[in-house]
């Protein structure tokens, strides 16, 4: 029996990619596609017109899992709707503030949720490698994160870059909030020992490039992931949806889906 998927934000870049992928899947079926209140279904529509809706409750009525790559404000509404409907939730929305993240965690008490800054299998393997490399490096190794995305991305640093930073910080048993240096300008002075630096690039149609840089005296290690299309993220989200359908209530991530936990 296939897992029935509702897609949030069907007219978005990820929504269109997910729609195409699920349409060709043997394990997943499309239950509904949501549109923003000011949107109409595309013409020609890639799926049956009756699958489009502006109402999240209607979208969830025949769904097992909601896949959500929308906005923080919209995702907060989805948290309540999924919990009320008993529908599992794959959330790839980034840029949530503390209050919005709290809404996700409250919903996880009632439904199974997979939340990840990046659903690419390659990126999640990268996070594991970053953790191992940070543990193996000495305290004199400087940690930097360089990320690049398309000109339309609205948050910076990216959620994936922050996830890399959190992996580094956890491996050193420190707080990323305490160690992060998000920008540099002017006379900054010497690099603070133990800091984790971020550099952000925005331009063109870059889907997503991330590099974790380990720089010490005499050598550098770079761990890089480059995404050529959004298909890698969509495939990972679908993989998470299939896995999530059999899980009990709780907050999971792609490290759980890929069984990368220690």
From TrEMBL:
InterPro entries: DapB_C, DapB_N, DapB_N_CS, DHDPR_bac, NAD(P)-bd_dom_sf. (S)-2,3,4,5-tetrahydrodipicolinate binds at residues 150, 159-160. Its EC number is 1.17.1.8. It is found in: Cytoplasm. The keyword Signal does not apply. The keyword rRNA-binding does not apply. The active site is at residues 149, 153. It catalyses: (S)-2,3,4,5-tetrahydrodipicolinate + NADP(+) + H2O = (2S,4S)-4-hydroxy-2,3,4,5-tetrahydrodipicolinate + NADPH + H(+); (S)-2,3,4,5-tetrahydrodipicolinate + NAD(+) + H2O = (2S,4S)-4-hydroxy-2,3,4,5-tetrahydrodipicolinate + NADH + H(+). One of its GO terms (molecular function) is 4-hydroxy-tetrahydrodipicolinate reductase. Residues 122-258 form the Dihydrodipicolinate reductase C-terminal domain. Catalyzes the conversion of 4-hydroxy-tetrahydrodipicolinate (HTPA) to tetrahydrodipicolinate. Belongs to the DapB family. This is 4-hydroxy-tetrahydrodipicolinate reductase. It comes from Congregibacter variabilis. The gene is dapB.
